[in-house]
Amino acid sequence: xxxxxxAVTEYRYPRLHxxxxxxxxxxxxxxxTLLPSPDATATRTVRLAQPLVTVxxxxxxxxxxxxxxxxxxxxxxxxxxxxxxxxxxxxxxxxWSVAEVKKGDTLSxxxxxxxxxxxxxxxxxxxxxxxxxxxxxxxGQQVRFxxxxxxxxxxxxxxxxxxxxxxxxxxxxxIAEMKVEDLVPFTSYSEGVITSSxxxxxxxxxxxxxxxxxxxxxxGYDVDFALDIRKGDSFKVIYQxxxxxxxxxxxxxxxxxxxxxxxxxxxxxxxDTSDRGAxxxxxxxxxxxxxxxxxxxxxARISSHFNLARRxxxxxxxxxxxxxxxxxxxxxxxxxxxxxxxxxxGWKGGYGRVVILTHGQGIQTLYGHMSGFARxxxxxxxxxxxxxxxxxxxxxxxxxxxxxxxFYVNGSVxxxxxxxxxxxxxxxxxxxxxxxxxxxxxxxxxxxxxxxxKSETLARLETE
Length: 464
Ligand SMILES: [Zn+2]
Description:
Layout: H1 5-25, E1 44-48, H2 65-86, E2 95-100, H3 107-113, H4 118-125, E3 142-148, E4 151-158, E5 163-170, E6 173-180, E7 184-193, H5 198-204, H6 209-218, E8 234-244, E9 247-261, E10 264-273, E11 277-281, E12 324-327, E13 333-335, E14 340-347, E15 353-360, E16 363-370, E17 372-373, E18 382-383, E19 388-391, E20 402-409, E21 412-413, H7 432-463
Antiparallel strand pairs: 1-7, 2-3, 3-4, 4-5, 5-6, 7-8, 8-9, 9-10, 10-11, 12-20, 13-19, 14-15, 14-18, 15-16, 16-20, 17-19, 20-21
Helix pairs in contact: 1-7
């Protein structure tokens, strides 16, 4: 099959750059927030219109500016239509009042506060339709009453930002209807360079904390985010944001991401497999998941986390130190790095309270100085990867709270990074062609957006 793809690829840079410039000038860029800080010049967020990824029709990847502008207009129109739907009940000339649900409220209480009587409650509860949501009212929610000539005509119970139960009067009594508004996905791109911490760099790039945790999760099999992050490490993320009426409601999924740690770059592509749901894969289709996670403690809980320049001091004195120390406060959860079985949970000399897990293939992991064990952790218990097995402490020969972690193969301590370990299933043969198309597209986008942001930055610097 001959095609003109190289030409298309070469052609895309200026066009996307132009596109980004237009998006920026029309204020569709969410956050080019340049805060006066060292991280600021290194981080950027750009929002892009939706039709970014379409596996079925890779030909669509070369979007024209007109297409993109049209797509944005269409999305805005859809958002307008949604707010119209929300206002449908309010369209008539009712007088509206709003009651906030308080602690211990029943529907009668709320009606009473709105100046309505038991008969109104009765009539509403006799409405045709599903009223089960009324059983779940909780403090902070809103109930809106629409009256005309002092008679209750409509009620809107706001369940969430996207769901409302709307009850309105018809000729033969009330009728209830659930309205669910669809969130509109927007695709965004962010990148950042770590100068002090991943959290700070990600924050400046416009990522939420949960998105940052998700990023660390995806790469947590290759990178120890607690100990291995260095100044100059960087990330690129293509992700979705879910919007309603032009406002972000929540984050969507990370679609593709790249993390460079100490000069080594890892790339993950999200793919919805036909056999086991969505998961992350390397560009070649290998699973990002491995038999072991790199860190037994969440990186956000590590005491040395915010000072990467200074390694935390070794706080204990097991002779012939042969493990990795994670300084964290007492009580921080310790997670099994792989699926396994508890071989030992108890006191062992200098290790203090210790858990040893057996994982098969001659591999054992050891977690020392614990302040306590998690419930049901005793010899013979099966544990799964990421399960909390105990809590950080300073038991045994330790002068301060930290986790001492060891990784053994056939009885001798090894560096888990250099041990060849089985990975989770790769993309199936059946899914491979579709995956490879998506993978190429995503890698292309990661570098295209990075290049576009770079030339945008250069262009701005030149005009300044
Ligand atoms: Zn140690």
